[in-house]
Amino acid sequence: MSKEENKYLSTTGLTFPTCEEELLAYDKQHENVVYELNENVIDPFKIAKEFEVEEAYKKKILNKSQSYFRRAVLAAKITDEYHNEWTFGIVKFQKLVYLAEQISKMKFAADYRKQAAGPMNHKFIHSIKKEFEKQGWFTVHKQEGKYQKWIFTPQARLKNYESYYSQYFFDANEDIQFLIDSFRKWKTDKVELIATVFACWLEAKEENSLINDALLTQKVYAWHKAKKKFSKKDIIESIRWMKDNGVYPK
């Protein structure tokens, strides 16, 4: 410690030995002082064990039943915020749930497949509809017309999902809320592209590939022929946004 630092600490009543003579004097002054740690209050081995258990829990892959209900709770949070938004369609809905699952770092059972619109779960809307109506959160029906649309109508027990959401997603809530707020007015194609880039990025990471813009662009185009609707500029801009906002596989 420098003299300047020690001089500053002395103004707060704290000083440290600065030479061997002072150190010997300090030891002499405190030779009869016994420092005891109450292991019932602070047990380093217990703390280490609790940390190991917590880390193991984070890495544990949820079974299908756990994934099913947690996904429904997450979907309820998103639907609660989005059901009156004109941009809220089934594709945007599922892509947002996918991204929120990923950034929550909760190991959901993998139910997504490569499809034209990005990572897709064909049973998604039917399982969500079933759980929403079972819990009394929303009624869900498909509105036919020029454009097919799913309508979510809030029910009396809607806010009951909040206690589950706080329990499951407390640590990730800030990141999930960021996605919800960011994508609120975005068109479906833009959200679809972000979700597809994320899935490609995750795939590249699992392959231990050197991740760069060229590789991610290549993977997006290889995902499905429908991705040709996106220009290279669209893809690069999406990658930039994801990097700038920390929305990518860690």
Query: How much strand content do the residues show?
Result: 5-15%
Strand order of the largest sheet: 1-2
Taking pLDDT < 50 over at least 5 consecutive residues as the criterion, the unreliable ranges are: none
Report the sheet with the most strands, covering strand number, pairing sense and barrel closure. Answer: 2 strands, antiparallel
Q: What does the radius of gyration come to?
A: 26 Å
Rounded mean pLDDT is 83
> Looking at the structure, what is the overall shape?
extended
Number of helices: 11
Q: Kindly state the percentage of residues in helix.
A: 55-70%
Number of strands: 4
Count of distinct structural domains? 1
Distance between the termini: 37 Å
Order of helices and strands: HHHHHEEHEEHHHHH
Structural class: mainly alpha
Describe this structure in words.
The protein is mainly alpha-helical and 250 residues long. It has one domain. The chain contains 11 helices and 4 strands. It has helices at 3-10, 20-29, 44-59, 64-82, 90-104, 124-135, 161-169, 173-183, 188-206, 213-223, 232-245; strands spanning 113-115, 118-120, 138-143, 149-154. A two-stranded antiparallel ribbon has the order 1-2. A two-stranded antiparallel ribbon has the order 3-4. Helix 4 (64-82) packs across helix 5, helix 5 (90-104) runs parallel beside helix 9 (188-206) and helix 9 packs across helix 10. The longest helix is centred in the N-terminal third of the chain and has 19 residues, at 64-82.
